[in-house]
Amino acid sequence: MRKGLLKPVLQQWPILVPAGVALAAWAAWLGWDQHRDVHPDGTTTGPYEAWQVIGLVLTLLVPVCWAASRRHVAAAVLGPTVGLTVAAAYDWSDDSSGLFMVGVGLVMLGSLVVTGVVSAVIVYAQRGGRRTGA
Question: Which residues cross the membrane (predicted)?
């Protein structure tokens, strides 16, 4: 009986791990930097620096590669995408312009495309470059 209750949770493990890592990575790399930099000419940049975003991307390669190498391609694509989308929506929800959802949508689309490509490359490399199908 107990094993029957754990089965649904264990089936979701491949998607929950990358999603949780994406949430934690967002908090670690981007969550603490909330101010914009004002330059002498009056322009503003930020709140994130390029090295923070690069660090986030490199960190997320680990769970994507982990899930894709175990043939959990849907989890490799959807886990980080869901995690980043939720993190961005939470982090940017206090934006006074109301355009934060555009940014959240772009984060969702970008992470979906990139994780899809990385997962496809990993699966293709594991097959040794061989095509399979009908």
Answer: 12-30, 50-68, 75-93, 99-125
